[in-house]
Amino acid sequence: MIKYDTIKSELLSDPEVAKEYENSKIEFEIAQSLILARIEANMTQAEVATKMHTTQSVIARLESGQHFPSLKTIHKYAIAINKHINLQL
């Protein structure tokens, strides 16, 4: 099995891919934070969805890095996994 970091490095060696990644970096960082926090909470996407009164597919979209979720949505997610939001500038 190929590791994520290996694939990421290979893809980012392409200047066009690197530029697009940089343009969407915040979305990917948010997605990664959501996923890691959910895993740390030992919860599935379905369990988070139930607590947020939504569907698993909505949680999958939030965690995909393809969308920029609102702070309100991130707050609901945090409550569902019993975490707090730390915002830094």
From TrEMBL:
Record PROSITE patterns: HTH_CROC1
Family matches, as Gene3D superfamilies: lambda repressor-like DNA-binding domains
Coiled-coil positions: none
Protein name according to UniProt: Helix-turn-helix transcriptional regulator
Domain called HTH cro/C1-type: residue spans: 34-88
